[in-house]
Design goal:
Strand order of the largest sheet: 3-2-1-4
Structural class: alpha/beta
Keywords: Coiled coil
Distance between the termini: 132 Å
Strand content: 5-15%
Number of helices: 7
Radius of gyration: 48 Å
Coiled coil: 26-60
Amino acid sequence: MPETALQTLDTAQRARWELAAMAGRLRMLESRLVEERHRGDELRRERDRERRRADRLRRSEAYRIGAGLLALLRNPVQAAPRLTRSLVRRLRPAPRTIALALEPAGTPAAVAPRPPVHLYVVIGLEFEAVREFVLTLRQRLQVDPDHRPVVMTDCESFALLRDLGVLLEYLPDRATWERHRPDRSWEDVLSERLSRLYRDHESVRTIIIDRAHPPTLAELLR
């Protein structure tokens, strides 16, 4: 066999031997790491057991008495009253508990249902006539508050009537609407406004007020 081939073979064998040796060292290191990990786990468990044992000892009565005696030996003047109070608390009989009869809980008060909403359509009345109608409607509710009123009006001064305690909704009158929006019918706007108020307030009844003959208190009570 040529000398060059022998040298190549020796180099390959040496490389394989070095790889095998390195693998052996790695396996040995891994086994040591596993052993150290197990040993660390065991030491941590032992530490936790000792901590629990020390905590139980500190909470024990013997430990507290021993600590009190040591404090008494070190400083009798300050420790004696504290130790005496501790002994008195331990020797004091437990207070007797007296069962008190609890009053039966009353039944919760029934919540009265909210009265329904009636929608009043007041179109074409001047301010004084609208004010008179709202005052009459408020008197009617004082006599029989069987519903919640919502008044829709086209009176521009409706805001002056808000302090009367009746909810007011505004719709521009026909002349104002046709002057600003001639491209859209006022009747369509009125219909949409009524539908929206009816839906938003969950109204159960719609009353259209005759502008020529506004209802009296007696007529509203019917």
